[in-house]
Design goal:
The chain is mainly alpha-helical. It has helices spanning 3-26, 31-44, 60-75, 79-82, 85-105, 110-118, 121-130, 134-150, 154-170, 178-182, 190-209, 216-220, 230-242, 246-275, 280-294, 307-310, 315-337, 359-389; strands at 27-29, 342-343. Helix 13 packs antiparallel against helix 14 (246-275) and helix 17 (315-337) runs antiparallel to helix 18.
């Protein structure tokens, strides 16, 4: 390894870590941080975590939160910082993996694309303020892609399936990527790969069910609480105008309950028209976009799933996805979080007040989020249709 490469890697690690750990140490974050600390407390107190209404994932993330809080007590670092650390470390490792992948691909404009991952404000906010676990999931999904794309040997296919499986065990959404991966793996490896992708989830649930009951349907049916995306945004506007009449309520209920089946129906067509004709990074992007255009409630930060894979593609090929996803995340973030950010000193320190928005500002942000949610959905739908027809 050349000295230049070593210096680049060190610069990536230090920069990526510092731009995240500094704000993470001074900003407490949103209510998600409080929820993760509640999970850790429940695990330590032998309380069933599924009595908490906010928790819709497998037990794996709750165990990670518990471990980080125990470690926090040993090294005397605030708990709210430690529960953010898995996401921050994942961002650092992701930046190294993206750098190596782009080096192998000989990608031009590598520095600009890498900044889109390392210094991406959305990724930074997600890990350091929201404290979400998506960065951890993105890392394992990217490693799974890396192992299949650069070598298709059996041992790496095995590791790839395990990496994707860990991502699925953390949050169930990467399950939609299994068909894309299978389209690029030799058929003799399909069974072992599929088993490994579901194994971490099964183990996590089985171990927890020994002691506590789990409603499996509760985990697999989670869809979020966001009303400003795509056709559901239009239905929300109609609801505000007409006062939620019975016919509209039935339409909204139908889409809410059955939109997941739109995705299942789309997969066979996507397999034939896209997966078999495109490389794996593009197939993953297309899988995510298929999810976005078919589902009714897409949170702004779900867009970050795309970023490392967009960095693997030519800019002109995915530029609309880059810009619309970033704008939607920024506007959606303002609406969901800016008035709810609590600084580290807020709890018990009276001179630090939470950021609050007036009713007019709230309604303005909600309107902007609806607008950008619908425009972004239209952009993604247009890109999906054009790509599907090629």
């Amino acid at each position: 390894m050349s000295n230049k490469r070593v210096k680049t890697l060190l610069f990536l690690v230090v920069t990526c870590f510092l731009v995240r750990i500094i704000p993470a140490s001074f900003i407490y974050g949103t209510e998600d941080i409080r929820d993760w600390l509640t999970l850790a407390k429940d695990i330590g107190s032998n309380i069933n975590i599924y009595t908490e209404e906010f928790y819709h994932f497998t037990p794996l993330w709750a165990y990670i939160c518990y471990f980080m809080c125990k470690l926090s007590s040993l090294i005397r670092v605030p708990h709210f910082v430690m529960v953010k650390l898995p996401g921050i470390i994942s961002d650092v490792l992701l930046s190294l993996a993206v750098y190596d992948a782009m080096s192998r691909l000989g990608k031009k404009a590598m520095k600009i694309a890498l900044c889109g991952v390392v210094l991406n404000p959305i990724l930074i906010i997600t890990s350091t303020i929201w404290g979400q676990l998506d960065s951890v999931i993105i890392l394992f999904v990217f490693l799974s892609w890396y192992l299949v794309y650069f070598t298709n040997r059996f041992c790496n296919v095995w590791l790839s399936g395990l990496c994707l499986g860990i991502g699925i065990a953390l949050k169930i959404y990467p399950l939609i990527l299994i068909p894309a991966f299978l389209s690029k793996i030799k058929k003799k490896h399909w069974l072992s790969f599929t088993v490994l992708t579901v194994l971490p989830t099964i183990i996590s649930i089985f171990i927890y069910r020994i002691k506590y009951p789990i409603n499996i349907r509760f985990i697999f049916s989670y869809s979020g609480y966001f009303h400003w995306w795509g056709y559901y945004a239009v239905l929300t506007v109609l609801k505000n105008i007409f006062g939620n009449p019975l016919w509209l309520k039935k339409v909204m209920t139908f889409f809410f309950l059955y939109s997941k089946y739109f995705l299942i129906i789309a997969i066979p067509f996507v397999w034939h028209r896209v997966f078999t004709k495109s490389n794996l990074s593009f197939s993953i992007i297309f899988s995510y976009v298929t999810f976005y255009v078919t589902q009714v409630k897409v949170a702004p930060y779900y867009m970050i799933w795309l970023f490392p894979f967009l960095a693997m593609r030519k800019y002109r090929e995915v530029k609309s996805l880059w810009w619309f996803s970033i704008l939607f995340v920024l506007i959606g973030s303002l609406h969901t979080n800016v008035w709810d950010i609590r600084f580290r000193g807020h709890y018990g320190v009276p001179f630090v007040k939470p950021i609050a928005l007036s009713d007019i500002a709230f309604k303005s942000l909600f309107s902007m989020t609806l607008l950008f949610g619908f425009l972004t959905w239209l952009c993604f739908l247009k890109w999906w249709v054009i790509t599907f027809k090629k």
